Structure formats: structure tokens, C-alpha cells
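Whiteboard transcription, Tuesday session. T.W. wrote the C-alpha cells on the left side:
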């Protein structure tokens, strides 16, 4: 159950037009680029005021209104792009048919640093988000059709720290990052991990590098079975970590699912600049004091 303080925290990213960033736009004859710039302190005060006003109005006779989990800021592509624009970030491209956008903060708990996570996933996939408790935030952002073994999962590899020029790293670097990603629940659930190929791409914001990684491994189930799996991941580095969005399915379904997995990985964008000023921070321990 969400409490009032948590809901008002979520509102920090829901208030229309409210942002601690002022988009600074420069235009040329052929293109328009947008960069994040810090607004004056008075704009920050206005932002906080708007959040307070919205927080006072969200309580109704039926309880509290919270964000929809399938796309955290509500609405479809146009609303997600409006929110990205309000932060001075580039919009998502046109989605493949049958896909839904996701825009969510990882790191609302004080035990983590905040990241803005953006990607697309099939419309019928179930989305799960991190949980908050007295110890801070736990879990990750994930979408999937779990009964069929199709998943897309965010992993924030903090031990790696900030990595410059991630696209220049050898295959062994991506093997380490992906092994860490798939073994979050234990180191003995896989074997025969292999990176098949890598391809460096660049995002729309600050020419940020994203490395698309094809990989495969054998999953060892609790019942003693071995399941061959194939996947496609996108790896980048912002803030003080390496961020991995890895997608995978069973090998028998890979040929059918490959276009979807590549669309998910290709849509992944991760931002860290200035989020400490706009991300809602949850200190659940205060609620139990």
C-alpha cells in the first residue's frame, strides 16, 4: 500500500510542466538539439510549490491516485515524450506495432543514486518495479511474459563504476557485466555463457554510447533441467555505474522473438544528469519512526 508521503514523492515527476531543468534549445536549418541546463533557484522553488499544490489535490474520497506501472508517468508515447521534453531530453522514436513505452526512475530510495530509465516493450508484457521498505529500495525494473520465459531486465553494475568510452571495451568486459546481470539471484543458475557479438550505437543525448550485445547461456533450473537461452542486451555507462538492459528468451523461441528483443534493447535510454534534483526520494524508515 502506498502512503501519502510516497504518493506525493511520485508526484515530483507527475506535475505537468514542473521541472528543475529548463530546456535550452538551439536550432539550425536542418535540426534542433536540446540540452539540459539548470534553472535558477526561483524555478526550483516554483517546482516545489507546484508539487505541494498537486499533492494537496490528489487525495479523494476513494483514496490515493498512483502512477500506472506499465508506463510510470501515465499515458502513451505522446505523454512520455512530453515528460522527456520537459526534462530537456530527446523524445522516443516511433514505437513498433504492439509496443508500449516505459519511463521510470530507478533509485528513489536513499540507498541508491537515481537514474531515469526509458525503453519500449511489448504491450502485453507485465512490468514490475523496485520496492521500498525500511532498508531502502530493492529490486529492479523489469518487463516480461514470464510464463514463456521472455524478459527484459535492468541491471545497474555499480562495482564497475563510471566507464568512459564503453564502446571500446573488449568482449570480456561485456561478459562480466552480463554474467553479473543474469546471476543476480545466485551464481549457480547458469553455465556456458558466451558473448556472440557486439555493436556500438549512439543515443540522441550527448552522443551517449550504447553497446548492443548478442549472447547465449544455459540456464540451470531448480528441478535439474538445462534450458538453452539467447538474448540481446544494451550496455551503457552514466552516473557512477554501468547500466545493462538485457533481454532473453529460450533458444527455441529466439528466432520468433529476435525482432522484439532487438527493438527493446535498441530503445533503451538511461539518463543521470541532474536527477538528484528532480527524482522523488523515498525514506521509508521515516514513515515507521
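and on the right, the sequence the group agreed on:
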Amino acid at each position: 500500500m502506498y502512503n501519502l508521503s510516497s504518493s506525493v514523492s511520485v508526484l515530483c515527476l507527475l506535475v505537468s510542466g514542473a521541472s528543475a531543468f529548463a530546456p535550452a534549445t538551439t536550432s539550425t536549418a536542418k535540426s534542433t538539439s536540446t540540452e539540459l541546463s539548470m534553472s535558477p533557484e526561483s524555478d526550483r522553488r516554483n517546482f516545489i510549490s507546484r508539487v505541494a499544490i498537486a499533492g494537496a489535490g490528489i487525495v479523494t474520497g476513494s483514496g490515493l491516485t498512483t502512477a500506472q506501472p506499465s508506463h510510470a508517468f501515465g499515458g502513451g508515447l505522446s505523454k512520455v515524450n512530453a515528460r522527456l521534453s520537459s526534462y530537456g531530453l530527446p523524445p522516443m522514436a516511433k514505437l513498433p506495432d504492439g509496443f508500449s513505452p516505459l519511463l521510470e526512475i530507478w533509485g528513489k530510495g536513499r540507498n541508491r543514486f537515481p537514474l531515469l530509465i526509458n525503453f519500449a516493450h511489448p504491450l502485453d508484457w507485465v512490468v514490475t518495479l523496485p520496492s521500498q521498505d525500511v532498508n531502502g529500495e530493492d529490486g529492479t525494473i523489469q518487463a516480461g511474459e514470464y510464463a514463456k520465459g521472455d524478459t527484459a531486465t535492468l541491471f545497474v553494475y555499480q562495482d564497475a563504476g563510471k566507464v568512459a568510452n564503453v564502446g571500446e571495451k573488449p568482449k570480456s568486459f561485456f561478459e562480466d557485466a552480463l554474467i553479473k546481470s543474469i546471476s543476480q539471484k545466485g551464481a549457480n543458475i547458469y553455465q556456458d555463457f558466451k558473448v556472440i557479438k557486439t555493436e556500438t550505437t549512439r543515443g540522441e543525448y550527448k552522443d551517449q554510447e550504447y553497446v548492443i550485445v548478442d549472447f547465449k547461456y544455459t540456464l540451470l533450473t531448480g528441478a535439474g533441467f538445462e534450458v538453452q537461452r539467447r538474448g540481446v542486451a544494451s550496455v551503457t555507462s552514466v552516473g557512477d555505474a554501468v547500466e545493462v538492459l538485457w533481454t532473453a528468451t529460450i533458444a527455441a523461441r529466439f528466432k520468433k522473438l529476435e525482432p522484439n528483443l532487438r527493438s527493446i534493447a535498441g530503445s533503451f535510454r538511461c539518463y543521470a544528469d541532474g536527477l538528484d534534483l528532480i527524482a522523488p526520494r523515498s525514506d521509508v524508515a521515516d514513515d515507521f519512526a
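Someone added at the bottom: The longest strand covers residues 190-202.
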